[in-house]
Amino acid sequence: MDSLIQMCDLKGQYLKIKKEIDLSIQEVIDSSAFIKGKEVSLFQDELAKYLGVKHVVGCANGTDALQIALMALGLKPGDEVITPDFTFIATVEVVALLGMVPVIIDVDPDTFTIDPQKLEKAITPRTKAIIPVHLFGQCANMEEIVSIAKKHNIYIIEDVAQATGTNYIYKNGTIAKAGSIGDIGTTSFFPSKNLGCFGDGGALFTNNDALAEELRSISNHGMKIRYYHDIIGVNSRLDTIQAAVLRVKLKYLNEYNSNRVMAADKYDNLLGNCNKLITPKRASWSSHIFHQYTLQLVDGNRAELIKYLSEKGIPSMIYYPVPLHAQKAFELYQVKAFNKNFPVSDKLCESVFSLPMHTELTKDVQKYICDTILNFLH
Ligand SMILES: *Cc1c(COP(=O)(O)O)cnc(C)c1O
Hints:
Blueprint lengths: L9 H7 L1 H14 L6 H14 L3 E5 L2 H11 L7 E5 L5 H8 L3 E5 L10 H6 L5 E4 L11 H11 L2 E5 L7 E3 L5 E3 L6 E5 L13 E5 L2 H10 L4 E3 L2 E2 L10 H12 L1 H19 L5 E2 L14 E5 L4 H10 L24 E2 L5 H9 E4 L7 H15 L1
Parallel strand pairs: 2-3, 2-4, 3-14, 4-5, 5-8
Antiparallel strand pairs: 1-9, 6-7, 8-9, 10-11, 12-13, 13-15
Helix pairs in contact: 2-9, 3-9, 4-5, 4-8, 10-13
The structure holds pyridoxal-5'-phosphate.
């Protein structure tokens, strides 16, 4: 291969829409409304329409979105929040920072998302919220999670950072966008996410008018009226240039996501017959927009495989090498690891690896990647 293979090709994606993006950014510079310019509210409205939710509130990043959601629900120090063990740390970090108790539970072996069977057993009278993460582009089993949450009167915050645009499919066939089902959805526009901006950005979604008011106020220093601070909030805004970029990219989101699905299908075809690998399973209750294409190596040396790929010019990543319950950072915090027993996430952390996945992948590159893997494993 003569051209460089990348995990995520943001430059190639940009070049295809360069004119539109450059114009959109230039308009913001010309107006100089860098904070709370009109593009922010236009983008919020457009994303709300796309997701089928009443309110979208922009913020500075996906981690802030999670924090603002917990604050808006009025959760207090000591409250327990249930989260999955196998995910990026942000989901649990904010729970601990706010003095709440993260209750970490194991995940489903097929979808790597929170396991509803383990969920109910982890609920105590102090449980106030569940944060399912729609990992790698696929929804957690929301119908079961919602029914458990309703029974116990618990809030749901959906972490949609890796699944903007994913469809949740109800048993009766009804479809809803990821993030529109729980009390609040949170997302990140980190550049490599399925809908990414040119820096940091994030948003919260809700159908609840009162909650939307709280989200807007908390993300803006706890103000509803300027310089009148009713509560302690944070400074977390989506800036106008990022909103301008996102307005353009939102128009292409469905196309971007279907490019990823086509690339995943191609990987499945090329690697699906290798009995040393498990290709990603697809849930009956969700579409999969492949934020990551993550395989499990069931027979072979993962470190050696990754080294071999790297020597052949093929990048790969381990999302995630350490389960959250074993992260050193949490030793100082009160983390309730239900059962202290995480067979699924422990095994995943030892066996998973992710291949290049983005909107610009070509069949030739994928063929080369897969041939190289099979050559190593055979
Ligand atoms: C990226 C990510 C976040 C955090 O988003 P930032 O914008 O980087 O703060 C949170 N949760 C998950 C699952 C993510 O993948």
